[in-house]
Write a structure and sequence with these properties.
Chain B: Keywords: Amino-acid transport, Cell membrane, Membrane, Transmembrane, Transmembrane helix, Transport. The complex is a heterodimer. By secondary structure, chain A is of the alpha/beta class. Chain A has helices at residues 2-22, 27-34, 48-55, 82-95, 110-115, 130-133, 177-184, 196-204, 215-224, 249-265, 267-274; strands at 58-62, 65-66, 70-72, 79-80, 100-104, 121-122, 136-145, 147-152, 168-172, 189-193, 210-214, 228-231, 238-245. Chain A has a 5-stranded mixed sheet. By secondary structure, chain B is mainly α. The longest helix of chain B is centred in the N-terminal third of the chain and has 33 residues, at 2-34. The N and C termini of chain B lie far apart (43 Å). Classes of the chains: A alpha/beta, B mainly alpha. Chains A and B meet through α5, β10 and α8 of A and α3, α7 and α8 of B.
Chain lengths: 292, 204
């Protein structure tokens, strides 16, 4: 009986590991990595780059549940999405290999994680704001995003952001949408749910009149759901930056140089096409101009 | 500032109302579990085991997203109130039941030997002793319930924790914001603890 159990366990483990090796690293990121640059310049002893190289991996604060941006694929165990791939490419630039360790960060933990050195960078749709810039340094911006409005098909009355006034608006918890709605329609009631599927369900069940979310995510939703309609173009401009420990000007410049390089070489656009470009039609946009 | 106040008031309201609801339902369930009728006892036992063995977060998600599917749509606050009250009622029922069971059976028998009816022996002998013993367990449940209301923020209710997250999203000062929120919860829990001590002395 005991032997049978061990045999069954072994079979199970073998089955699991077999499943993993069947998708070695996934195709998309491998293709991107072949084109990725590697830093070949001087490294100041004691600098962030030096620390990361000695450690042998890049510690990234990010998400595992953001579709198109940074989502863990439950089948392959691979992290996919725009932010996730950029993290891998940054590790490749620093280390010459895509060794990363992702720590799940949240909007409450991002600043402390950077301040106490738990992570090297935050790559997590981290909108650059003046308040945050007092607490962390931002490299980038690396992505220009905007909040859009979605309504159930057949609903009328919301044709522009100002129409949200007095309405109940569903937004993703802890997303820039919370502030965006308050800015365009201070009288709107904001209803927050943790994930995109919950927000969609709540919209369908009539808990709110509209759903405000990053346009890329809404486009992806609408492509799968015929009952969802997008209202106009994005009404905000959110610039995402890579969070770095406050005051580390050297590492900020290092990451900015890398962002410029992949923007110029077309790698940034490749990443966009492989992720957000799979749901947003048209050519890849130009990467935003690096601030400093 | 109004956001802070809204969140705080919602948390206080949710705590008070859910606890009141939990005590009401919990008392009924406790009675079911004590009465000498096997069927009613079984109903009480099933209630307790079903409600307390499924996490509150699961109940909240089921109530908020599941009930509208079967045509029951309540405002989010009242949905959260119902789920929290019914969940905590299971714990309240067990605290009350163990309080009553902790009174030695000889006490009830002696009361009846003295000629008291069953309701009289309950009112004058068993319940006074039991109530003193359930004060602290109930206070524990009330404090746990206070903290559990933070889960309502996950399903759209603007409670104190959700309000703090919104504020932090702009201020980017999590240590400051969440220390403040923690202190608010501490004050509420300390208030419950103080109330429990006063009640305990009165019952003594």
């Amino acid at each position: 009986m005991g032997r049978l159990l061990v045999a069954a366990l072994l079979l199970f483990v073998a089955g699991c590991s077999g499943g993993e090796s069947a998708v070695p690293g996934g195709g998309k990121i491998d293709a991107l990595l072949t084109k990725a640059p590697v830093y070949a310049g001087q490294v100041t002893p004691g600098s962030a780059v030096d620390r990361i190289r000695k450690r042998g991996e890049l510690l990234i604060g990010g998400s595992q549940d953001a579709p198109l941006l940074s989502q863990l694929d439950p089948v392959s165990g691979e992290l996919t999405g725009f932010d996730a791939y950029l993290g891998k490419l940054l590790a490749q630039y620093v280390l010459g290999k895509p060794s990363t360790d992702l720590l799940t960060a949240t909007s409450e933990t991002r600043e402390p994680l950077l301040a106490n050195g738990t992570v090297d960078v935050i790559v997590q749709t981290y909108t650059i704001t003046p308040q945050r810039a007092e607490r962390v340094s931002f490299a980038g911006p690396y992505y220009r995003s905007g909040q859009s409005i979605a309504v159930p098909k057949g609903s009328t009355g919301i044709t522009k952001p100002a129409d949200l006034a007095g309405k109940t608006v569903i937004v993703g918890a802890n997303t820039p949408g919370v502030k965006a709605v308050r800015d365009v329609a201070p009288t709107a009631e904001v209803l927050e749910f943790g994930s995109d599927p919950e927000c969609l369900t709540a919209l369908k069940q009539g808990r709110g009149d509209a759903y405000v979310q990053d346009q890329a995510i809404l486009v992806a939703d609408a492509s799968k759901d015929a009952d969802l309609r997008l209202v106009g173009e994005p009404f905000t401009e959110d610039l995402y930056g890579i969070g770095i420990k406050h005051g580390d000007a050297e590492f900020t410049k290092f990451v900015n140089d890398w962002l410029r390089e992949i923007g110029k070489s077309g790698l940034w656009q490749e990443v966009w096409k492989q992720t957000i470009g799979t749901v947003v039609t048209g050519e890849a946009p130009a990467p935003p101009a690096i601030a400093s | 500032m109004s956001l802070v106040l809204e969140g705080f008031l919602n948390t206080v309201a949710l705590t008070l109302l859910s606890f009141a609801g939990a005590v009401l339902v919990g008392s009924l369930v406790a009675v079911l579990r004590i009465v000498p009728v096997p069927l009613l006892r079984a109903v009480g036992a099933v209630y307790v085991e079903v409600w307390r063995n499924i996490p509150l977060l699961a109940w909240l998600v089921l109530f908020v997203f599941g009930l509208p599917e079967v045509g029951v749509k309540m405002p989010l606050f009242w949905t959260a109130f119902t789920a929290i009250a019914l969940y905590e009622a299971a714990f309240v029922a067990e605290a009350l039941r163990s309080g009553v069971n902790s009174v030695a059976s000889g006490q009830g028998e002696a009361a009846r030997a003295l000629g008291l009816t069953v309701p009289q022996s309950l009112r004058h002998v068993v319940l006074p002793q039991a109530s003193r013993r359930v004060v602290q367990p109930l206070a524990n449940i009330a404090i746990a319930l206070t903290m559990a209301t933070a889960l309502a923020g996950v399903v759209g209710v603007v409670d104190m924790t959700r309000a703090a997250q919104r504020i932090n999203l702009e201020l980017a000062q999590p240590l400051l914001v969440f220390t403040g929120v923690g202190l608010c919860y501490l004050v509420m829990a300390a208030g419950i603890g103080y109330g429990a001590r006063v009640l305990e002395r009165r019952f003594a």
